[in-house]
Design a protein that fits this description.
Blueprint lengths: L1 E7 L3 E8 L12 E6 L6 E6 L2 E6 L7 H5 L8 E6 L10 E2 L2 H9 L5 H18 L4 E5 L9 H4 L5 H5 L9 H14 L4 E7 L3 E7 L2 E5 L20 H11 L3 H10 L2 H6 L5 H9 L3 H25 L4 E5 H6 L1 H10 L9 H5 L5 E2 L8 E4 L4 H14 L1
Parallel strand pairs: 1-6, 6-8, 9-12, 12-14
Antiparallel strand pairs: 1-2, 2-3, 3-4, 4-5, 7-8, 9-10, 10-11, 13-14
Length: about 375
């Protein structure tokens, strides 16, 4: 079964075509893949398709879809989509119908950077591949196991009845890496740190999510590349009442002009923050230190939700590729029994335990493979 996976994020699109066989085995090598980024310059996309690199001027992220889909080798049997927000209605992988498409559209306002691109990807795939089955794998579904006390906000109870609750995101990644972690070490209580342009921490017990930092939208929780993460709601009330801000302006500032970019004044890209720190830039140093502080604070909350921690896991672009960040976090968490091996931390190997021999907590760096997790879910659903 040849499965095309389209994985759209807030600043990138990944696509892979795999001939999926045994879903419980290791991921087969892609028959074809593509990776597109527009985070550094929203008017220009950097594209790598089937190993060839190019750039493309774009007016919106959707402009990258046709150039990518036109190069996919045929045939394609199933198209699987990462859909960020499934709301209350979609708590498991679902075949896409007109009704499901309408449901995804309904949740666009909760994850506007993601769901709109994913809807456009569904429509583009329909045009490119005709009646091939399309399947939605929801980022929120993994967190459906969170207990009520973790998912209900302490506002009026009516909020819950209106669907205003904590959903959690990056669930596909957290699900994949928790499964991989269980293959590597014994860890009933896992704290999983998905650190990319967007970032979240999840508390996972026996493979099930019990708490996470993102909530009603992907804006809650950690300081991120360009997103603020959690801030005092009173700040927003103040800006509306006394500075004349409206919802669109708050949306833009909190999602696009905050986080690493907002504090450094330079970029939301951790690589550029580290380079600026090396040049002695004080605001880049502050941005990095704040990122570490907020991450450690949220990890502590997840440890409390689990009642302890057997393993701490780093994944995604920053988590997998930023040894200075991992070192700073592990040093701060030494009181929990976390001890890191500096030589292992500096290594570039994937799926590695970088903990020191005497560490009471294992420290894992795992390469996330959301695309393979999506493909596995597609195979299971298509077989039924």
């Amino acid at each position: 079964m040849r499965i095309l996976v389209l994985n759209g994020g807030s600043s990138s699109l990944k696509a892979t075509l795999r001939d999926a066989g045994a879903v419980d085995g290791d991921a087969p090598a892609p028959l074809w893949d593509a990776h597109v980024e527009w985070g550094r310059d929203p008017a220009k996309a950097s594209m790598r398709i089937a190993g060839k690199s190019s750039t493309l001027a774009i007016q919106s992220p959707a402009d990258v879809l046709k150039p990518v889909l036109d190069t996919v080798p045929r045939p394609v049997d199933v198209v699987g989509h990462r859909v960020v927000h499934g709301g209350v209605a979609y708590r498991e992988t679902t075949r896409i119908t007109p009704e499901v498409r309408d449901g995804i559209r309904k949740y666009c306002e909760f994850a506007p950077e993601h769901n709109r691109l994913e809807l456009e990807a569904i429509e583009a795939a329909e045009q490119a591949f005709g009646g091939v089955p399309q399947i939605a794998v929801f980022d929120t579904a993994f967190h459906a196991t969170m207990p009520e006390e973790a998912r209900v906000y302490p506002g009026p109870y009516d909020w819950l009845e209106q669907g205003i609750r904590r959903y959690g995101f990056h669930g596909i990644s957290h699900q994949y890496v928790s499964r991989r972690a269980a293959q590597m070490v014994a860890c009933r209580r896992l704290v999983s740190c998905h650190l990319g342009s967007g970032a979240s921490v999840a508390a996972i017990r026996d493979g099930a999510s019990v708490d996470t930092t993102m909530g009603f939208t992907p804006l809650e929780g950690l300081m991120m590349g360009t997103r603020s993460g959690s801030v005092d709601p009173g700040i927003l009330i103040y800006l509306v009442r006394h500075k004349g801000y409206d919802a669109a302006e708050l949306d833009r500032i909190l999602n696009k002009e905050s986080g690493l970019k907002g504090i450094s004044g330079l970029s939301g890209d951790m690589r550029e923050i580290l380079a600026a720190m090396d040049r002695g830039d004080p605001r880049a140093r502050l941005a990095f230190d704040m990122y570490v502080h907020r991450l450690c604070r949220e990890i502590g909350g997840m440890v409390a939700s689990l009642g302890g921690m057997d393993a701490l896991l780093f994944t995604a672009g920053v988590g997998e590729n930023c040894p200075p960040l991992r070192a700073a976090v592990c040093d701060r968490l030494g009181f929990l029994g976390v001890a890191m091996d500096p030589a292992k931390n500096a290594a570039t190997a994937q799926d590695i335990d970088i903990a020191a021999l005497d560490s009471r907590v294992r420290v894992l760096v795992v390469h996330t493979d959301e695309d393979w997790q999506i493909a596995r879910d597609c195979v299971r659903l298509a077989a039924n």
